[in-house]
Specification:
This protein has helices at 16-26, 34-44, 47-57, 64-76, 93-106, 120-128, 167-181, 183-189, 203-222, and strands spanning 4-9, 30-33, 83-87, 112-117, 130-132, 138-140, 194-198. By secondary structure, it is an alpha/beta fold. It has one domain (4-118, 180-222): P-loop containing nucleotide triphosphate hydrolases (Rossmann fold). The structure holds BIS(adenosine)-5'-pentaphosphate.
Amino acid sequence: MTELNLILLGPPGAGKGTQGERLTSAQPLEYVVTGEILRAAVRERSELGLKAKGFMDAGELVPDELVIDLILERVRGEAASDGFVLDGFPRTIAQGEALDAALAQLGRDLNGALLIEVPDEEIVRRLSGRRVSQSGRVYHVEFDPPKVEGKDDVDGTDLIQRDDDKPDTIRKRLSVYHAQTAPLIGYYEERGLLHRFDGTLGVDEVADHVAKTVSTLRLEDDV
Ligand code: AP5
């Protein structure tokens, strides 16, 4: 089986994390979640975390120079040699170009950009009801509740609300998405790599559509 290299695109709260988790539990692909890597750095109070925290709390992007090498190191790593799913990277055209250059250097290709589309008005509702576990599992109090209220299904630890899931910060994140990340849609569409998904459907239905597209990409890559 050949490798499969994918990115997940979409506004904050579109369901990238929800779908990325499902996709990578069904397929042996390295799952690289930029937001989680940055939040772990903030928790550990590492140099990166201290630099990133202010941007994240304000709903702004962490500067490219802090993010690009961090993520490309994972793409080049042994664990990603059979393929990867990048969630939250690239988020600017400069990041997209850096990914292309790194893959070209490795003699590898990007196979698809999976865009999960959800209108802005739905995003605020979703993110205000989101709860996450320490290890990054994602729930929603109404749409995807845990088995026991407030507890992670897997390890039973308390679920928390993310600091950047406050209404003002959510609106800032959305405007940053439209200004800085949405241009990547055209970037990948022009190269025939873009696949659009209606993220307003239920979690299982979106997962089905994503899984079908990914199977087709695998078949195309195998022939
Ligand atoms: P990051 O953690 O990547 O945040 P995001 O892109 O804003 O995405 P989210 O994690 O908020 O949402 P999601 O699309 O994963 O949705 P989820 O599955 O959780 O980034 C955080 C910050 O880090 C950024 O603001 C920035 O500062 C920094 N950063 C990250 N990457 C960077 C980069 N490359 N460059 C620079 N800075 C960077 O779902 C949301 C909720 O909806 C959940 O509660 C879920 O249960 C629910 N839900 C999911 N799907 C459905 C559905 N189909 N129906 C109903 N509910 C659903």
